[in-house]
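2024-03-11 09:14:02 INFO queue: dequeued item SbsC C-terminal domain-containing protein, len=326
2024-03-11 09:14:02 INFO validating residues
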Amino acid sequence: MKKIILSMFTVLVALTLTVNTASASSYTDAANLGEVLKTKLSSFNSTINSGDISSIDDQYDSFSNDIKKTERAIGKVSGKSNRDALNIKYIKPAKIARERVIYEVSQYRLMKVINDSLTANKVDKANSDFAKLERLEKRAVEIKEAGGYEQLPAKVNNGLSSIKSDIVDKLNELNNKNSRKNPAEIGETLLVEKDDWLDGHVKYEIELTDVISGDEALTLVKEANMYNNSPDAGMKYVLAKFRISVLELEKEPYDINHANFKAVSGSGVTYDDWISIAGLEPDLRNDLYEGAEHEGWTYFMVDENDEPLAVFNQGWDDEVWFNISN
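2024-03-11 09:14:37 INFO prediction written
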């Protein structure tokens, strides 16, 4: 019986020693990682104080991973008081440093995304993300005030402002650029330049000078030639007069004709039905040489309740859009 009790005591002592050894090992591992994190915190704070947002961004993810790794190690340490002490010593100051810049890093990264969208001509996405950017800026100010965080060097915000300024310039340019969502109106002259395999180098001005639709357009169509057809049921004619001035031309002459233009519905559907109207004067169709200017009518047939657009050279580099609703 004594042997059994002695044996059990020996096992208990061994287990206790093993547990204590494991606990000590966990604490040591956590403390060692904490010291590594402390060193990296010093480096991260130095980077923050430099005010270089690009360098802050470069270190941010690695520093965040070190925080997570140290937190996991501390979570394995026995004793709440031990864990609390380690968290206060290592984790809390590291998180404060990270939280000082979290919204600035988010702004910097979002602006990279916006620039990528602008490069890809994804203007809608860029505009949507720009709205998010302004919310992040507001949140950055609020979080600093609420948390009592130390203010960042002015260079950080100056760097972000500089990047944002470039984005604003690009957005303004693209938002104001002629497109289906931003078509030219009557009297607005567009300067267009292109180089392609078909026409070579061409530079010209194009302007929508007049639009007539509905009954008035039908009257002009019938006056132009009595044999011109009336529009199909539920449809209407739209007559659009364009002025084109050829400024530079590599391959002469430059052919302008009705096929250069297509009508597109307000909902974005292209009207593909071919129509022909004879006798409208002046007619748009012409061969133009460098220095020439010509003004003439072209025509479309669209749904009677539609508010259509006209697109010139759809799908080519010199594609331009006009509002032909009136």
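2024-03-11 09:14:37 INFO annotate: Strands lie at 189-196, 200-213, 235-249, 254-256, 261-264, 286-288, 293-303, 309-312, 320-323.
2024-03-11 09:14:38 INFO item closed
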